[in-house]
Structure formats: structure tokens, C-alpha cells
Specification:
Blueprint: H1 3-20, H2 28-39, H3 46-79, E1 88-89, E2 95-99, E3 104-111, E4 114-125, E5 128-139, H4 140-148, H5 150-162
Antiparallel strand pairs: 1-2, 2-3, 3-4, 4-5
Helix pairs in contact: 1-2, 1-3
Length: about 160
């Protein structure tokens, strides 16, 4: 049997077993024994033992990365308005990030393939809330420049208030 083919079969089997296992209960030894039984190979030999250990370690690292990414995605979703269940869209289909007042809000919209942060006033017509021309839409680059300068803006506001 080809060594590359054998390693491929071992890796595939070990990964499948890991995916189906309770990670709090399983050990590397148990995984190796299950894979040995399934494949009909003695995986307790040092060469195979080291290979199985390598596959388990890689799987665990990938799983940890996947969980970190998932947590990061969930955190970002929460920042954008309270998670996927709490998302609110306006009558134009734009994601409402926050309401600044009854008539003003911040939304994220896609306009001709560009993502825009829109801060504007809205009015009611026929039961719908529609955007007015009073406001501003910023590209991602403009938003980044604005965000970077928020501390300077806050400092200027405090200085004006204390005058």
C-alpha cells in the first residue's frame, strides 16, 4: 500500500472520528484505537502514533481557530445591533445601526456596489419612513478618516464647552 494513500486514509478517518466525538471525553489514545479498528491497521507503531498525534493537533488548532472566528463574528454582529435576531432594517432595506432621534438615524447601505455609512433625517409618507436629502453618506474610506478623528472632535467640543 502506498504510504501517501495510507496517511490520507488515516487522516480522513481520524478527522471523522474527532468530528463525531465529544471533545471532553476523548483522548488521543482512544482516537488512535478507534481508527486502528476502522482501518484494520496497527496505529500504535511509533511512526503511525506520531502521525495520528500530528493530525489530532492540527484538528484541534483548526477547531480553536474556527471557534475564535465564530466568537469574533458573533461579537461583530452584536456591535452592529444586538445579534442577528435584533437586526433592524428600514423601509428601504438598509441596516439601521442606531437611531439618533425620532427622525435621524445611522444606516449601512449598499449603493452601486459600495458600502456606505449614511447619517440622515427621515420623514413619513404613506406609513413608510423615507430618507430626506438632509444628511451625509460616507464611503468606507471616509468613515475610517472620520472615526480616526473622533478623539480630536471630542477634544474640540470639550474645549468649546469649557470656554
Amino acid at each position: 500500500m502506498d504510504d501517501t494513500e495510507t496517511k490520507g486514509r488515516i487522516e480522513e478517518t481520524v478527522r471523522r472520528i474527532l468530528q463525531e466525538s465529544d471533545m471532553d471525553e476523548v483522548t488521543e489514545s482512544k482516537i488512535r484505537k478507534q481508527a486502528s479498528e476502522h482501518l484494520g491497521l496497527d496505529l500504535s507503531q511509533p511512526y503511525f502514533k506520531a502521525f495520528v498525534k500530528q493530525v489530532v493537533k492540527a484538528f484541534l488548532q483548526e477547531e480553536e481557530q474556527r471557534q475564535k472566528q465564530q466568537q469574533q463574528d458573533e461579537d461583530e454582529e452584536e456591535e452592529l445591533g444586538g445579534g442577528s435576531k435584533g437586526k433592524e432594517y428600514d423601509d428601504e432595506g438598509d441596516l439601521i445601526i442606531c437611531r439618533l432621534s425620532d427622525k435621524r438615524r445611522v444606516t449601512i447601505q449598499d449603493f452601486r456596489g459600495k458600502t456606505l455609512v449614511s447619517i440622515r433625517e427621515y420623514y413619513k409618507k404613506d406609513g413608510k419612513e423615507l430618507p430626506t436629502s438632509k444628511g451625509i453618506s460616507l464611503t468606507e474610506e471616509q468613515w475610517s478618516a472620520f472615526k480616526k478623528n473622533v478623539p480630536a472632535i471630542e477634544k474640540a467640543i470639550k474645549k468649546m464647552e469649557s470656554s
